[in-house]
Structures are given as C-alpha cells and as structure tokens.
Design brief:
2 domains; Rossmann fold; 12 strands; 361 residues; alpha/beta
Length: 361
C-alpha cells in the first residue's frame, strides 16, 4: 500500500513556521513501515494543465461549487492532477491534507474507478464550514474524513456515514517545541505571549493588555505579540508591548520558552497550532472556551474563559501570575499534555485508518 499526500503549504499558509502546521505530519511518515509514503505537491504551473479540459468548462464546474478557499486553481492544480495520478496507480491512499480548499469534484472519478482510496482532512470549525460549504454532498464521495475536533466531526458526519468520520488530533513537533534550559519564572518580569491571526479576537487581546497594564501585580508584565505585519499597528502604541512578525522558528520558540503564560483569545477554533506549540514548550495557556479547544487543552494545563470576556481573561492572567506554585504545576502539565499530540502518535492513528481502508480491498 502506498500513501500519497496532497499538500500546498505556502499558499495562504506562509505564516506557519517550518516546524508548524498540518503538513508537518508528512516528515514523520517518511521511512515509517507500513506504509511506504510519497509526498506529492502539485506544481505551480497550473494553467498548462487545462489542455486536458476546456478552460470554460473548468470555470463552469468551479462556479457551481466554489466557496471561500476553493477556486479554479484548486480544481486544476489539485483535483485534475490527482485524477491523473489516480488513473496511473493502484492500492494507493490519496490523502488531501486541506479538504476545504482541495476537494469538490474528484469523487466523480474516484467513486467509479475503485482502484485507490480517497481521504481528506478538514481544519475549519462548523460555523466556517457551513459558510463555505452549505450543502457539501460531495463529502460522501470520500472513503474517510479526518476531523481535527469532536464537534467538527459531528458536523461532518451529517454528510456521510459516521464510521467514515475519524477524529484524529492535530499533532505537534515535540522535539523542536520543547522547554528551554532556563525556567520562565527566572526573569525579573513576567512575560505573556500572544501568537496568531486566524480566528483570533484582536479586540479582546487589546483590551486584555490594557487591563493588565492598569492592574497591580508583584512584577511588571511584558507582552510579546506575534502576528501578521498588517496587524502590527493595533498594538505598537500599547505600553509594555513588543510586536513581532515573520520570526524564525528558533526566535518564536524562544518567546514561548520565556513566557510565563500564553494568551489565546479566540473567536472559534478546531485545532490551534499556537496552543500546541506553547504547551509543548511548557507554557500554560489562558484561552477562550470555544470550539474544540478542550480536545487539546485541559483544566490542568490551561485556564478557560468565556468568549469575549476580556475582563475575566485579564483577571485569570493576574491571578495565575500571583500563584507561582499553581503556575509551575500548569507548566509541567502543559508539556505532558502536548506530548500526547506528538506527531509519531498521530501517525500511528492515521496508519491504522489507512490499513482499514486497505482491508476493504
């Protein structure tokens, strides 16, 4: 059995570090037995592929199913290219790593030519999936769906048999993201870090920083905000705040390691790279209780706050910073929790699913 991953890291995912993101799982499959693995990334010269299909027909197909991240480029660069590969292979599991943007029409072929199997992973929460795919009947053409959260899995199961929907968590590179040699508490001030852009509640971040700056804690609190360049202006005028963009992997890891706490005010989520990276570095999390966040963080490693409640989150931060024993316990619990999401463990779960698909032949 061969497993072929279909990925386009780099398009819309430039913010992810080399050791971050879902595509990272492919590095942990290389050399694993079973199954042997090939990583396939479609070339960028996608218009050349239209020789096999009139461009007008391609546009018409996409127009009837386009939504959000799916486009003519997705159809040609992903689905047509995979179709060509499909017809030339047997006993291969094709795994689309980003189902939202890479899958609509491929099932027209794969459900008729049953020499291989088709799997797709999905990343967005149900509210966003509903907006992008209000009637996703094409999901039933998949042999398996990989959901990254339990609530997301329940939504996806509306459109295909439940036994074909598998909850397999997002993983994290725990060898790279790991605690540093110096404890975060050793600094003369507290450091709190916020990282990200997608589905983050930026208004809440701003309010939390202002509230904590106005509060009285035993030591000064400094904030490191790591976000897109387009967001920098929202934070650059805040006191005790340093804004970072386009950090190296090592620089980001150093900030996690130095931080006393990780702040993650979210509007919604399934998996969250930042939470996994921070916990792997031994950084406790204060996070909004939304989406599938409890599939990743728990009460031992994190403090949960209601969505949009900046006052409660600021109070939770101040309270934890003044309780060093509890903070230390959460730091150890965060690392231990993250080890449960190490990529080798996720690879084992995926391999089991692939094997079961193989057993169907």
């Amino acid at each position: 059995m061969l497993v072929q991953f279909i990925s386009q890291k780099g398009e819309g995912l430039e913010h992810l570090a080399r050791h971050s993101g879902y595509d990272r799982l492919t590095a942990f499959f290389i050399g694993a037995q079973p199954p042997p693995t090939v990583v396939f990334q479609p070339p960028r010269g996608w218009y050349g592929s239209l020789t096999a299909l009139p461009r007008a027909l391609a546009r018409r197909l996409v127009t009837h199913s386009a939504g959000g991240w799916y486009s003519l480029s997705s159809f040609v660069r992903i689905e047509l290219m995979v179709a060509r590969q499909w017809l030339g292979k047997q006993h291969t599991v094709f795994h689309l790593l980003h189902g939202e943007s890479h899958f609509r029409h491929l099932g027209l072929l794969t459900t008729r030519v049953r020499t291989n199997r088709l799997v797709a992973s999905f990343h967005l929460p149900p509210t966003r999936l509903q907006e992008l795919m209000p009637q996703p009947h094409w999901l039933a053409d998949l042999d398996a769906i990989i959901a990254l959260g339990r609530k997301q899995a329940a939504w996806l199961a509306q459109w295909m048999p439940l036994h074909k929907v598998h909850f397999v968590p997002h993983g994290i590179d725990t060898d790279f993201f790991c605690p540093g040699p110096q404890a975060a508490d050793a600094d003369s001030m507290y450091h709190c870090i916020f990282v990200g852009a997608h589905l983050r509640d930026f208004q809440m971040v701003n309010e939390i920083i202002q509230r904590i700056n106005a509060s009285k804690t035993g030591r000064q609190v400094h904030f490191d905000v790591v976000t897109l360049p387009s967001r920098r202006a929202e934070f650059e005028q805040l006191p005790s705040t340093t804004v970072h963009s386009r950090l190296s992997d090592e620089a980001l890891r150093d900030l996690y390691r130095r931080a006393s706490l990780l702040l993650q005010p979210l509007k919604d989520c399934v998996a969250n790279n930042t939470v996994l990276e921070g916990m792997a570095c031994g950084t406790p999390v204060v996070v909004t209780d939304v989406g599938d966040i409890r599939d990743y963080a728990d009460e031992l490693s994190a403090e949960f706050v209601a969505s949009g409640d900046s006052k409660a989150m600021a109070e939770a931060v101040c309270r934890l910073l003044e309780e060093p024993v509890k903070l230390h316990a959460k730091r150890e619990a965060a690392r231990q929790r993250a080890e449960g999401f190490a990529w080798p463990q996720i690879v084992k779960q995926l391999t089991s699913i692939y094997r079961n698909l193989w057993m169907d032949w």
